[in-house]
Amino acid sequence: MSDIRSRIEKRARKAIIQYAFLRWENAVIIGMVLLLMFFLPQPFAGWPIWGWPALGVLGVAAMVFSSLTDMKANAKVQLDLFQERFNPRKVQDVELRNEVEKALEYQRRIEAYIGKQRAGVLRDRLEDTAGQLADWVSYIYQLALRLDAYRHDPLLAQERATVPKELEALTSRQSLEKNQEVKKQLEAVIESKRKQMESLGALNSRMEQAELQLEQSNTALATVYSQAQLISAQDIESGRSDRLRQDIQDQIARLNDLVSSLNEVYDYQGPGIS
């Protein structure tokens, strides 16, 4: 299981336990017990003094047990934590935010599908697949954040618009300059501007590649969602689930490489994004 999914599951368990003890039904049970102990301490002869508290404890215990074993509620808590960890609202661009939401929706559906499976080898394999998909969604989210930061970076937008014009003006000025010292200085500035323009071009090309990869990754995620529902116990024996897992690992590796390269190229430009 991936570290991301493992950490989210631990947080989900803590949240579920907290909810199990603090749900409003428990407050009602405790309130009723206190009222009955005060107004009706002995409803009939032989009723023990600890009768109402004992029933209250049993009632609260039943509520706690039902909360801890409610698979739908537990799955909802876990998915809410996924939404919190990979919050689409942090992505300003509508198109990119939709891609993140799409990835989270596939994650939600796969988790819901796994929750319906009986305990056994098939469920264990699907759990492993879900753990890998958590990494997949994480990289999609990081990719969207990088693209979003690039699209909304005013300094880079200004440089893309002004650097070519500045280079053209400097080149023109150098061709007309008669003073050799000034001409030499202009040459150094032109070389610096050329490097800056090449760097901006490389970054833009990498971002275009990232846009295509983001779309392709969500398409592949949709395919994995379909394939995960077709896997049966017989497919585990035939190795079909292993092939699916390898396909997922390949996608994750590509996303990891792309996100790492974006971090290197983008950070080289100097924009302050996290």
Short précis:
The protein has 274 residues and is mostly helical.
Comma- or semicolon-separated keywords:
10 helices, mainly alpha, 274 residues
Write the layout of secondary structure elements.
Elements: H1 3-22, H2 24-39, H3 51-68, H4 71-85, H5 94-115, H6 121-151, H7 154-176, H8 180-230, H9 233-238, H10 240-269
Structure description:
- It contains ten helices and no strands.
- α2 runs antiparallel to α3, α6 packs antiparallel against α8 and α8 runs antiparallel to α10.
- The protein is 85% helix and 0% strand.
- It is an all-alpha fold and 274 residues long.
- It folds into two domains: 85 residues, no CATH class; 181 residues, no CATH class.
- The two termini are 26 Å apart.
- The radius of gyration is 30 Å and the shape is elongated.
Shape: elongated
Low-confidence stretches: 270-274
**β-strand number:** 0
Main β-sheet description: none
- Strand-residue proportion: under 5%
From the N-terminal CA to the C-terminal CA, the straight-line distance is 26 Å
**Number of domain modules:** 2
**What is the overall pLDDT average?**
82
Structural class: mainly alpha
Q: Tell me the number of helical segments per DSSP (H or I, 4 or more residues long).
A: 10
Radius of gyration from the alpha-carbon trace, in angstroms: 30 Å
Helix content: over 70%
Q: Give, in order, the helices and strands.
A: HHHHHHHHHH
